[in-house]
Amino acid sequence: MACTCPPTRVLTPMIRSLKLTSIHLRVADLARSVDFYTRQLGFCIASTAPSVANLSVTPSTPAILTLTGDFSAPPAPREAAGLFHAALLLPSRAALGAWLQHAADVGVSFDGFSDHGVSEAIYLRDPDGNGLEFYCDRPRAVWPFAADGELAMTTDRLDVPALLSSAAAATATPLAGAHWGHLHLRVTQLDRSATFYQEKLDLAVTQSSYPQARFLAADGYHHHIALNTWGQPRISRSADTLGLVEATFARDDHGDAQALSDPDGMVVNITKHITT
Which position among 139, 170, 206, 218 has the lowest Cβ density within 10 Å, counted as fewest Cβ atoms? Predict the structure, then answer.
């Protein structure tokens, strides 16, 4: 009888040529947001200026999150494209478990917990409703793939007790070693936005089977960009509303810095060199 086992997948070492280096959010109340991101989530203040705070994951590392306060900025309309979530990648499962324990101890309210096959993820929102994901990756050797070679990420129940049982010892810097892993956007047209990010960031589609969503990545990663049309957004993002101002990606083969506007008005900066 012929063997029906799937062929062994040979994984080459993943050399990162692309990294999401920073996120910039406009918030209504800067003091409230700084308190949330530092006291509750574990970020550190790297620098401040009038109406602006730059946050890092430890006191000695570069800022990766900029918050600009603007009391007059309106919330984005429900039907507008925009940020679905920004995803912070923790360096290990033990680190994610320790962060979850820290967040629970200080009263963070969570939106959900998911096992995606490629990763374990925790979802929440900041005081302005900006979506956040804190996650850790599983080893690439156990990532699920479909018969056609695409990833087969799923959304299953996360075993939260097991994650907590794996937690590292608590420290004063619960986000040490973390960096942005991916950006998930709500868009008005999947194909149009996917083409933009494929061309501008040199990404490949890694999964297209998830309903009303598309996942794209470089370097064999599961995704650097996710796109969805959930809730049927039908208007572009307005530049003066609360929420995502811009995201910055670094590419090690990129020339001069560029500031691009995607098809729904979201600003994406591309810079040269990756700082790890």
Answer: 139
